[in-house]
Design brief:
Layout lengths: L21 H26 L4 E6 L5 E6 L4 H4 L4 H18 L5 E5 L2 H23 L1 E3 L5 H12 L4 E6 L6 E6 L2
Parallel strand pairs: 2-3
Antiparallel strand pairs: 1-2, 4-6, 5-6
Helix pairs in contact: 1-3, 4-5
């Protein structure tokens, strides 16, 4: 599963509404938003966890959901693994109900933005190590996190990056270019 954030809400999918009239697309998205809220509230109840659930329809035509407050740390899990699994389950449920592709992202207590900032800092630090030592290797990351590292390195003169290894141990290496 790939990591996702509101900036990159889902793996490459066609936006909803490419072949629908705008009114029909709006109805599907509103139903999907309601299904998202129902699913997440039911999940919190089943887990006996406290939290405030919200879901919005973004300008890009996707559902952006979040759970905040209460004892939601359990919903993030180690390095966001529980959050990733919940998002995938949520996406599957919403798409089955809608009977079409709907882009769905889920965040818990702002975790995705905090993690994004950590990854960007790590990328910059390891790029500096590569400048000084010729090469640097980061810890295993999700596909989304690796993408962020590659974007940082692409903007730096004299460095290149590539991913190696197999999921879930896939990682980025940064090298100084001749």
């Amino acid at each position: 599963m790939s990591g996702v954030s509101p900036d990159d809400p889902a793996p490459a999918e066609e936006p909803l509404g490419e072949d629908l009239d705008p009114i029909e697309a709006d109805e599907i998205l509103e139903d999907a938003r309601e299904d998202t809220l129902d699913f997440l509230e039911g999940l919190l109840d089943a887990m006996e966890a406290d939290g405030e659930v919200s879901a919005e329809i973004s300008e890009e035509g996707s559902i952006v959901a979040s759970i905040d407050g209460g004892d939601v740390g359990l919903l993030i899990g180690s390095r966001g693994q529980t959050l990733e699994a919940m998002q995938e389950l949520l996406r599957t449920v919403v798409q089955r109900q809608a009977q079409t592709r709907v882009r769905v992202s889920l965040d818990v207590d702002g975790y995705r933005e905090r993690r994004r900032q950590v990854v960007l800092r790590q990328a910059e630090e390891m790029a500096q190590v590569a400048v000084e030592q010729g090469e640097a290797e980061l810890d295993p990351m999700t596909a989304y996190e690796r993408k962020l590292v590659h974007q940082v390195v692409a903007d730096m003169e004299g460095l290149s990056s590539f991913s190696e290894g197999q999921e879930p141990r896939r990682r980025v290496r940064i090298r100084r270019t001749p």
